Amino acid sequence: MKIYNYPSKSAEKRLSSIVNRGLVFKKKHVHTVTRILEDVKKNGDRALIKYTNRFDSPDLTIESIMVTGKEFEKAVKTVDRSFVRALNRAASQIESFHGQQTSKSWINAQRAGTLLGQIVNPVDTVGVYVPGGMGGETPLVSSVLMGVIPAKVAGVKQILMTTPPTKDGTVNPHLLVAAKKVGVNSIYKVGSAWAIAALAYGTETIPKVDVIVGPGNIYVTLAKKMVAGTVGVDMVAGPSEILVIADTTAEPAFVAADLLSQAEHDKLASAVFLTDSIKMAKAVAVALDEQLKKLTRSEIARESLKKFGAIMVAPDIEAAIEISNRIAPEHLELQIKDPLTYIGKIRNAGALFLGNYTPEAVGDYIAGPNHVLPTAGTARFSSALSVDTFIKKTNLIQYSKAAFRREARDVIRLAEIEGLDAHAKSVKIRLK
What is the mean pLDDT of residues 345-364? Predict the structure, then answer.
């Protein structure tokens, strides 16, 4: 990878290309997803099974689209103890973290004659989308945990899960065991944009939900964007990204490994390294080359680094942090001496990883915080998936007659300024 000195024209050009890469949908994708959404909305199960048979499982029927109790029982017997141990640890720690996020209803009566407050309730039904993962060969268990657990903590009673079936019409047993562990109520063998449509609009078999969460390919992402407003969605996420800031106390091999952990996701992923040491920059560049040669997904990672990767040498760590705040990365690692002294300077990041032994991967699976994070610079204004994703807050207002009369003239004046005569009269009628 080329090493840039910041500030410079070449560094600024590269930085701008990374900052502005955004999430772009092609017209053909928009057309395809629009057609699928309309088809499922109109034709329900018939459209669902048509797309499922065409793209995923040719022999699946609508009668077998829902995972049965026998399938769950078989899955439990299939997985090994080491998986169950890791699953239990991850689920426990994710639940513990999200348990700190709960909100309570409240009422305030400080202003004479009024009761003001907020009522907090969970949504009724949630749909969690879990990608197929290479035709079921690489089950995304962490997506089950990160989507379902905060919904359960929020108090959601009905949690559905959809995931593409394998060619033979089954679901990977690791996904089923994970779903059972965290309390999914029902699982449907449906994927891609038609799964999102089913969750948003409902079909004869799949009930409509209030909120849809979970990652997916371009079709899933675009479908979520299109149904947002009909239902709630967690976010419209783009390709994964990581930014590592390191000084001379860091281990170059660690930095390189962490950059590649995100670059391997997607050719559109972004991996950026910022340092105040040219020696460190050169060492990480060498480590990247060495590790790329041994990486299973080296072609994807290499293309990602070529398009949206960078190594930049900044004047100091503070300057590197300002560059990071401009990028607003999904994952930000501080592999520097005393990282806690710098966290107050971090304004824009989806998740922050501190120290040489906190790779992004621990956050993906087991640390506890949610790994569904804002991408493509949206960390400037949005946050990780959390318990708040699954609750709604209702404002509560009560006035006594005395409190009403005390404030009525001000309400009337503001309504008249806005030209809303009926608003003003609804107050005036109560003053007679």
Answer: 97
